[in-house]
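ARCHIVE CARD
Drawer: 12
Card no.: 0347
Subject: one protein chain, sequence and derived structure
Cross-reference: see card 0346
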Amino acid sequence: MRDQVNNRLEDESLNETIQYVTIYISEQLFGLPISRVHDVFVPESVTRVPLSQTEIAGVLNLRGRIVTAIDMRKRLGLAPHEHTGSMMAIGIEFKEESYGLIIDSVGEVLDLSEESREAVPSNLDQRWADVAAGVHRLESELMVILDVDRVLGDMVTNSVAA
């Protein structure tokens, strides 16, 4: 009986779905677990911070909170985006601080099975692999799961050490 219960629990955990907020950076689809996303917003203005790391676009005010804005294109070593309209940002928390990841665009929310998640492929661009927690192969494209801890971990650690 115990084995049947354990097998059923294992089956249920394999069938677990995770919701991802999808975003695009340089035409690459990324997914952020919805549990990590606090806001999707259009920054009104970003104030540059002198002597900050190049990835830091500056700071912004989001409902009375000071938020560090991270330019994801610079973070990934990509060419700047020619913003013809408003910037888009994803609000997240990391080590009790608020961050806004500046991205190209927001997609939709996808429910994906944990079972369909794959390891990072060895041929994935190293810039993507460095911030990936795995991938999901969708019908028409590959979605890279963005690992917020990896995206911000090195930056926060390096800025404290500097």
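Annotation on reverse: The radius of gyration is 18 Å. Residues 148-161 form the longest helix (14 residues).
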